[in-house]
Design brief:
This protein has 315 residues and is α/β, with parallel strands linked by helices. 39% of the residues lie in helices and 16% in strands.
Amino acid sequence: MSEVRQDILACIGDTPLLALRTIMPANGARILLKLEAANPTGSMKDRMALAMIAAAEADGRLPDGGPVVEYTGGSTGVSLALVCAVKRHPLHIVTSDAFAREKLDHMRLLGATLQIVPSESGRMTEKLTRDMIEAARVVSERTGAFWTDQMKNTDQLAAYHGLADEIWAQTGGRIDGFALAVGTAAALRGTGEALREHDGRIGIVAVEPAESPVLSGGAPGAHKIDGIGAGFVVPLWHAGIADWIERVSTQEAMAMAFRLAREEGIFAGTSTGANVIGALRLAERLGPGATVVTVICDTGMKYLRGFGAALATPD
């Protein structure tokens, strides 16, 4: 008999792990993908949204029916909107026109109130990130809403420890490397530290936009990979998180997202494209016989308008 879940939040996690079949390095490791698009909103951020809200409820920072505010490029906002809808918390989201319209519509449909901060030609920049953070701070101060403050919130790390434990169990402990793009750094930090507790030899790769390679010492710049590359070294990042940092351009990430769809039947966003490129590079580094894991962050359904426009534009 199949299990009946108590609510949609009980469907978060326990996502499948699948192997790449055709997109593989010529002489490298096996690559496995954690299918986080199987979460209720189609995103890995469901895990962290639930962890942040549950922790604040548990210790009294967020009372029953209390309001919540956050700044977000989209997926975190959608996940928070889901969690807040189920738990009956009014949600105010500070976001921007730089991010996928599908995500903004999804947040509104789940009941969130949106405040849109204008971008520079639809691009993600350091100034935009900082403007969104400041706007969320002002809302929290003015209204008394609980600010989840994802850039600094360590409650979310527990969610990614759980992700790591799932990966460890699903691979039977046969994992040699893990690659993930960096937004707030919580996912890479939490997953990486828990994997290293299982086996300290696991190599960790951080992926960042080539146009804004601040983690590897470069200058901030504008890019169009949703959800990553804040344009500055984020508070949850520290140098010991990753063994290597890989730079991936928006064009490379988009091209890989299209390849995943056409060659593997996996429809995901540009951050997933960046993840897979990072995993391929790590697979080449580790060589045959090793296993590398990365993450399908979300579903490509969140980016249909942008992908359609890209397909319609001649090379």
